[in-house]
Amino acid sequence: MSKKTYHSATALQYEGKKAPTVTAKGHGELADEIVALAKEHGVLIHQDEELSKLLSQLQLGEQIPQQLYIVIAELIAFSYVLQGKFPENWHNIHQRIDIKT
Fold this sequence. Notes:
The protein is α+β, with helices and mostly antiparallel strands. The protein is built from four helices and two strands; from the N terminus they run ββαααα. The chain has a single domain, classed as 3-Layer(aba) Sandwich (name from scop), CATH 3.40.1690.
């Protein structure tokens, strides 16, 4: 099995109070190392060439711009769902539907 090579990678950290911040970024081998380290620590990876281009323009320690809030928020929310994490007050409508056959 061949190893996947990443052209570029940008890591974001989200603390829940401020906008996500760029914590690592790189191209080529460094991108591969960032992705490998993230996977090693159970961090979900999202591949999107256009988003990657936008994020690669940011500097280390810089918060994402307001124009990216919605797309990044959706990715964070989706990653939480994939991990089985839900807010305390979240109610799954599909579990409340009683279908009688």
